């Protein structure tokens, strides 16, 4: 159902370096970009993540209650990707672990403050 999710950034080069390094760990790479935005995906059949400088020219802000969930294949990959995000400058928003029956996730905020997680169903 979801085609892509767009997050705002105030520093596109810094954000691009973060997401290039992070998303390569789940097989995603850039598939669209210009001076205003960059989008990543693992394939054209899967949802993507995009970063943009806001169109209205105002500063990007973090959406309260907004979060992007990125699918992982296993709890081990959730742990590895969460650790990778932190090593790239993300801040911890919840260490990897079970979150209810059959759901495993680790939460973080990117350098712009956007909240994301890596998750898998177990």
Tell the overall outline. globular
DSSP strand tally? 8
CATH hierarchy: architecture? Roll
Name the CATH class. Answer: Alpha Beta
What would CATH call the homologous superfamily?
A: 2,3-Dihydroxybiphenyl 1,2-Dioxygenase, domain 1
Question: For the largest beta sheet, what order do the strands appear in spatially?
Answer: 1-4-3-2
Multimeric state of these chains?
A: single chain
Radius of gyration: 14 Å
Uncertain segments are: none
Question: Could you walk me through the main structural features you see in this protein, from its secondary elements to its overall organization?
Answer:
- A hairpin with a 5-residue loop joins strand 7 and strand 8.
- The chain is globular, with a radius of gyration of 14 Å.
- A 4-stranded mixed β-sheet has the order 1-4-3-2, with helices on one face.
- Helices cover 20% and strands 38% of the residues.
- With 122 residues, it is an alpha/beta fold.
- It has one domain: 2,3-Dihydroxybiphenyl 1,2-Dioxygenase, domain 1 (Roll).
- It has 2 helices and 8 strands, in the order E-H-E-E-E-E-H-E-E-E.
Keywords, please?
8 strands; 2,3-Dihydroxybiphenyl 1,2-Dioxygenase, domain 1; globular; four-stranded mixed beta sheet; 122 residues; alpha/beta
Give a brief outline of the structure:
The chain is of the alpha/beta class and 122 residues long.
How is this fold's topology laid out?
Layout: E1 4-8, H1 12-23, E2 29-33, E3 37-41, E4 48-52, E5 68-71, H2 75-87, E6 91-98, E7 103-109, E8 115-121
Parallel strand pairs: 1-4, 5-8
Antiparallel strand pairs: 2-3, 3-4, 6-7, 7-8
